[in-house]
Every structure is written in structure tokens, then in C-alpha cells.
Amino acid sequence: MPAVENGIPDIVIGRLPIYLRALTHMAQEGDKVTTSSHELGQRLGISSAQIRKDLSHFGEFGKQGTGYHIKYLIEQLRHILNLDQEWSTVIVGAGYIGHALAHYQGFQHRGFRIQRIFDNDPSVIGQDMNGLTVQHVDELSEVMENEGIQVAILAVPASAAQDITDLLVDAGVKSILSYAPINLNVPQGVWVRYNDPVVQMQRMTFYLKSEE
Amino acid sequence: MPAVENGIPDIVIGRLPIYLRALTHMAQEGDKVTTSSHELGQRLGISSAQIRKDLSHFGEFGKQGTGYHIKYLIEQLRHILNLDQEWSTVIVGAGYIGHALAHYQGFQHRGFRIQRIFDNDPSVIGQDMNGLTVQHVDELSEVMENEGIQVAILAVPASAAQDITDLLVDAGVKSILSYAPINLNVPQGVWVRYNDPVVQMQRMTFYLKSEE
Questions:
Q1: Does B44 touch chain A (CB under 8 A)?
Q2: Nearest residue to A116 (alpha-carbon basis) of A95, A100, A94
Q3: Measured between alpha carbons, how far is residue B48 from residues B43, B51, B67, B106 in Å?
Q4: What is the 3-state secondary structure (H, E, C) of chain B?
Q5: Confidence band, pLDDT 50/70/90 cuts, at residue B1
Q6: How many Cα atoms within 13 Å fall on the side-chain side of residue A12?
Q7: Counting CB atoms within 10 angstroms of each CB, which of A121, A156, B39, B92 has the fewest?
Q8: How close A202 comes to chain B (CA, Å)?
Q9: End-to-end CA distance of chain A
Q10: Which of A:10-29 have CB within 8 Å of B?
Q11: Which tens digits make up the pLDDT trace of B134-169?
Q12: Axis crossing angle, helix A10-29 with helix B197-205, rounded to the nearest 10
């Protein structure tokens, strides 16, 4: 994954969904129409200068003195992040994690629709998961190609992760969120991000003092 | 969360668990005793210069020409990240995500032991989850204080997340991994990281072309 695209560092892109989430909460709270980089920064523990600098890559969204119009900035961020559309998404792996993801309410209204779920275990194929029927992974390629699906969530064991990734790539996937605790090889133009709770927890234990 | 502690940027700390994971895979593969920043970098899509620079904050781990001794570097990284010990961890929230976490095999041997799981829903209290009995959240404070638990995973709805966080902080928590899609307020000295799959996915859609 390149660190910079169109002159915009990926780390800046990575903060936009966080801004979007906080602005969406503000809009839901409904008690104000505008906000400032200062207020947003306080909520997020990010400096207001950082927020202004990040947003300045994409245009001029606020006015000196009046700040940002919350709903307008939400619309703009959704547009920048290609969330004007809803992305059809497949889950591969219907174990504990896949099951939790199939039931996760957080995709709705945030740009993703879980469309299909696959596994290779005969004992779960055909099961209903929150309205989706678990399909055999052998059907994955055909379904993805027919439906033009570009987004996948990988929730299979580390040992199977690279093989399934190769299958997904052949079927046209462009973006993979992987829960398998292993680094995946993908060709240029395919994006992978990793969701490994232990990596996140280990980043914090650095700062802790031992139990005894 | 400060961006820098002891002169070491948090973003550097954030890469150490990734190095540790990749080195552990190398050790498990068992076909070599040493590796190089170049080889590690290739596996991770990180430049070898970055890896050398990150590690140089903590000492001299490799030798020019012979590279890093894999098992030694694993030990050192575990020591730096305070993973010599196993951290007792509580899960709060026994819904779909908490359930998946209770069954997750990835904590073992990586520094964490899921010790307790709590919920406030009478219909799940008393249930067995992978050998743990779901306890009422009213018992949380006493258990955490008695057992000196500093690490928690928060898997409750956004609407309950701040209240439970306040409870955890009062009970002595120092590190929280939160699955609730909302920013939490914690005092200085308490660390929070957020696991929000949608934020990760939105970071990738920026780079995608629309379905049609």
C-alpha cells in the first residue's frame, strides 16, 4: 500500500473516517449546526491544527469565525471517501468473527451492505445469519464476478487466509479487511487492512506498569 | 493519548506488534535462524530503513551482515512491549462481538488471558462462553479491584460505552480496547484504542472506483 496517493498521505486518509464518525455523532445529537476544528479536535484528542491541515488537502470547508457546517462537511467527507454509494461486501468465514460481523449493525448507513457470507464447513453452509444464507466458498468467485463486488471481509484462520485472498483477488476484489493475524500478499491496486485486536492491545501494554 | 513518550513516537510503538507478529510467524516456519530488515520489510510492505530506524530507538539488535537473530529479537520486542507477563483481561459485553472475542484463539501466547466476561442482560448472565461464565456488570468493579486487572475490552453498544468506561476507570483499568463506534473520554494515564471495522473499510474506499 503506498503511503501517499495524489500527494495525500494515507495517514491523512485514515483520519477522515474518524472525523466523519464524530461529525455524524454531532449531527445526531442535533444541538448545533456548525462546529470548529477546535471542538472536533477536543472530542477526538487531535489538535485543531492537524484537522485543518488534513481537510485543507481537499478544499476549503469552513469559514474563519463561523467554522464548519456539520452536515455539509459530512456530505463532503462521504464524497471524498467514495461513500456516496453503498459498497456490496462479502464476508468469507462464518465462524465466531464472521457471525459477529454478519450481525453487526455498524455497517448500515456507513457505506457498506453485507451481501453474502461464505464458508467451507458443511456444518454451517445453509445456515441463516441475520437474513443471509451461508454459501459454499466454491461459489465465491462466480458470485463476486456476477455482482461486481469489490469489498471483502476475511474472517478465516491464518492458515487459509492467503489461499482465500488469492481467490478473492482473481474474482476482482479491490479492498480486503482481514481478521486473520498474518500478512497477506496482494497485487498492486488491491488494498488490505488488518484488524488484529492483539496488535492494538500490545501497542498499549508498552505504556503499562506490570501487575505486580 | 500523547503522540510521543520517552522520545519515542506512538506510531513507532504501533509498528512493534506488527514486527513481533511477523517474526513469530518466521520462527514458527522454522526454516531460518536469522532475518534482515530487508526480508522483514518485504513481508510487511514497510521499508527496511523504517524498520532499522524504529528498532534503533530501543538498542542495537542486529549486526551488519548477519542481520537479526529471530528468537532474540522476539524476546526483546516482547520485553519492550511488556509482554513478558500475561495480562489478565476482562471483556465487557457478551453480545455477538464479546462472544467472538471469548472464543478467539489469538490471545493465547500473545500476552493476554481473558479472565472474565460481563454483561447486564439477564438472559446471558450465567451462560458459559468458552469456559467463562458471564457475570453481571454490577460485579465488575469488585472483581477488577480484587484481581488488579488493568486491561479491558469493551464490546457494548455506543450508548452504554461511556458509562461502562467510567466504571472501568474507577476500578483501575489502564488500557481499553473499544469496539463501540464512539470516542471515549478517559483521564490521563488511561489508554484507549478503537476497533471499528467500518473506519478501516472507509479508509480503503477512498482508493476504489465506483461499482458502475
A1: yes
A2: A94
A3: 10, 5, 12, 27
A4: CCCEECCEEHHHHHHHHHHHHHHHHHHHHCCCCEECHHHHHHHHCCCHHHHHHHHHCCCCCEECCCEEEHHHHHHHHHHHCCCCCCEEEEEECCCHHHHHHHCCHHHCCCCEEEEEEEECCCCCCCCEECCEEEEEHHHHHHHHHHHCCCEEEECCCHHHHHHHHHHHHHCCCCEEEECCCCCCCCCCCCEEEECCHHHHHHHHHCCCCCCC
A5: very low
A6: 21
A7: A121
A8: 6
A9: 41
A10: 10, 13-14, 16-18, 20-22, 25
A11: 999 999 999 999 999 999 999 999 999 999 999 999
A12: 120
Q: Is A71 exposed, middle or buried (0-12, 13-18, 19+ CB in 10 A)?
A: middle
Q: What is the DSSP letter of A209?
A: P
pLDDT band of residue B66 (cuts 50, 70, 90) is confident
The pLDDT of residue A201 is 97
Q: pLDDT at position A1, please?
A: 47
Residues linked to residue B6 through DSSP beta bridges, in sequence order: none
Q: What's the whole-model pTM score? A: 0.91
